[in-house]
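Weekly structure sync, notes
Attendees: PL (lead), two postdocs, one rotation student
Agenda item 3: pending single-chain targets
PL asked that the sequence for the first pending target be pasted directly into the notes so everyone works from the same version. It is reproduced below exactly as submitted, 141 residues in total.
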Amino acid sequence: MRLQLALNVTDLDEAIDFYSKMFDATPAKVRPGYANFAIVDPPLKLVLFENADAGAGADFLHLNHLGVETEEAAQVVAAEARISGAGLETTGIDDTICCFAEKVETWVKSPDDARWEWYVKTGDAEQLENEIVTAGTTCCS
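Predicted structure, written out during the meeting:
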C-alpha cells in the first residue's frame, strides 16, 4: 500500500523538475497536463495536474504543509543534502520544537509554494512552535 497525493500545479514542467529532485525519482507517466510518480521511498503515488488557474501556495490546496517523516535524523540529513545538492533551496537542518514535538527537520518549498517538511520526531513538547526560530525556518503554524 501507499498513499496517493494528487496536486494541482501551475506549471507542469517546473513541478516535474522540482518533485523529481525532491524525491530523487522520475515520473512513471507524463501526458499533456498530467504526470504521475510511483515513488518507492517514501511509498507515494504522486499525481500532478496542470491547472494554471489553481492559484499558488497551501491556500489553494487547503493545506498547511506536507511532510515526510523519517525514522532517524541521519535520513533527514541525507534528504537535505540530496535536495539542496539538486539545486533546491532548503532551510538547512534544524533541531526545533514544532507541532508539539521536538524534531530534526528541514523545509523546502515547491514552485507553487506548497511547503514540504522532512523530519524525524525526537520527543514530545508542550508548545506548538519554537520560541526561537532559526532564520528561514518555517513551522506548522
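Discussion points:
- The first strand starts at residue 3 and ends at 9.
- The CA atoms of residues 81 and 89 lie 11 Å apart.
Action: rotation student to compare against the earlier draft before next sync.
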